[in-house]
Structure formats: C-alpha cells, structure tokens
Write a structure and sequence with these properties.
The protein is an alpha+beta fold. The chain has a single domain, classed as Aminopeptidase. 34% of the residues lie in helices and 22% in strands. The protein has five helices and five strands, in the order E-H-H-E-E-E-H-E-H-H. A hairpin with a 5-residue loop joins strand 2 and strand 3. The longest helix has 15 residues. The termini are far apart.
C-alpha cells in the first residue's frame, strides 16, 4: 500500500504539528521533550540561515504525516558533502503506507541536487523494524560506536 502525500519544506503553519512530531520521536527514543519548541523551530528552520533542513510529508487530508530532518555533513576521506539524517518520523496512522520511503527518497534527491554524495544516519539496536526498513532501502550497515560531548561535558572540555 502506498500513501499519496506531498513532500515539501515546512511553512510557518506546519510548525505546531512538526514540533509535536519531534516530541513524539524524542519520547519514543527516550530523549527529553520540550526543547524543540515553536521558538526553536522558527529560529533553526525558518530563518535566513537554517541550522537544520526539514522536509515534511503532507497527507491527502492536508495534515502532516511525517518529517525528515537533515544536517549538513562532510566526509574528508572522500572530499564530498552530504547530509546526516537526524530524524525520520511518520505518524502512526500513516505508517506502512510509503511515507517514510517517500521522505528518505526526497532527502536523497535533495542531497544529490545540492552536489552531495551521501546520506547517512544511525539507528538504535532496539529498533528492528527501522533497521528492516533501512535494509529494504538498500542501505549499508556499519558497525561503529557513537561518541558525544554534550552541554556540561563540552563546556568542561572547552574550558581546559
């Protein structure tokens, strides 16, 4: 079954629904919610220099069915630009209808049109449905460890 949806950049009217979807994905992954609010969405998505590129899927009913969020990335080993797929979410009532595939396909096209050569992302070990979906797209799997310095950790390091 496939979904008839339109993939497009969000507009101001989409932001409340988009913020709710981001919160749903954060909660699903056990992350805090509430940080990405309307003010953050306006600042980071809608300004003259967006920090994050988002595409939304609009269903036939005019409501948002999902989103994909991309952050610019660069691979020095290959000297190519691309994007990191920071988030992919489809509302439960729109799952298994082709919305996620349409969003990832549009993200890939966007990367290629901007001169990029890769789209990469991570998935949690406890997400076998997501991993099966990514395998069905033809994605390669890499075993790696993710590391981060965040907030207080990053500030402590920078102060040394």
């Amino acid at each position: 079954m496939t979904s008839d949806c339109t993939i497009r950049p969000p507009d101001e009217a989409d932001l409340p629904s988009l913020v709710a979807m981001v919160a749903a994905l954060s909660a699903q992954q056990g992350h805090p919610t509430g940080h990405f609010d309307l003010a953050a969405a306006r600042r980071d998505l809608m300004g003259p220099h967006p920090r994050l590129l988002v595409l939304v899927a609009e269903g036939e009913d005019g409501r948002l069915a999902g989103y994909v969020a991309l952050a610019p990335a660069y691979e020095t080993s290959w000297a190519v630009a691309g994007a990191y797929m920071q988030g992919l979410f489809v509302a439960p009532e729109h799952r298994r209808c082709g919305v996620a595939r349409a969003l990832v396909t549009a993200a890939g096209r966007l990367v290629l049109q901007s001169g990029g050569a890769f789209l990469w992302w991570t998935s949690r070990p406890g997400n076998p449905e997501g991993q099966a979906f990514y395998d069905a797209l033809g994605a390669s799997r890499e075993t790696l460890n993710a590391h981060s310095l965040s907030f207080d950790q990053l500030e402590a390091l920078a102060a040394t």
